[in-house]
Amino acid sequence: xxxxxxxxxxxxxxxxxxxxxxxxxxxxxxxxxxxxxxxxxxxxxxxxxxxxxxxxxxxxxxxxxxxxxxxxxxxxxxxxxxxxxxxxxxxxxxxxxxxxxxxxxxxxxxxxxxxxxxxxxxxxxxxxxxxxxxxxxxxxxxxxxxxxxxxxxxxxxxxxxxxxxxxxxxxxxxxxxxxxxxxxxxxxxxxxxxxxxxxxxxxxxxxxxxxxxxxxxxxxxxxxxxxxxxxxxxxxxxxxxxxxxxxxxxxxxxxxxx
Length: 258
Ligand code: ARG
Hints:
Helices cover 38% and strands 24% of the residues. By secondary structure, it is α/β, with parallel strands linked by helices. The strands form four sheets. Strands 5-1-6-15-7 form a five-stranded mixed sheet. Strands 11-10-12-9-13 form a five-stranded mixed sheet. Strands 2-3-4 form a three-stranded antiparallel sheet. It binds arginine.
């Protein structure tokens, strides 16, 4: 074998290695991100007939396109979401996660992309509960670990807050009159009433507080900046309003960031 052949092989090998390196994304753009979603948080993110659906699934698709991010969706339970982000099991999560100070100790959030709040739901037959002040000595069901759980626990005189890993269980308890009320995210309660409530559940009073959802990432996540730019871009080009109208029946009264 001549030296000439060896060096040609060497150059060929080097070229292959360089090609592999750039495909692996030394530029940073090429990594396929794992993005956590939830299988039962309608109409934001849910799984139906094996398919991931919802406002957040479609909004994320638009954000990722703008930010030039490749991703795979990873369905998780609500209980797993925080841990999965913190441990790096997923890079990001979009699942109706309320931005708050306590959570910011452990994770990072994007700018808000959805403004909402908590509401009280009762059984249709219930006449005594008209608002928060009527919840003293009552039993309220909600999802364990949610902002609603925290909120309900702080209601003066509340008898018991029952936490369930899946919000459907809380709704079932309400339908069966096993609890007095459910407190949870407004749009999810509204969706439940329209889809599975069987005419047995109603919302009483107005919004209890103000909350905003953000995309969650690891502390100091390098993706948050690009995601914020992409959120602003999909708001600006009308994609946000179109998706909002599709999923919530009417365009938003106020756009995120306004
Ligand atoms: N917004 C509430 C929270 O952050 C409820 C979240 C519900 N999200 C979900 N993926 N199930 O605690």
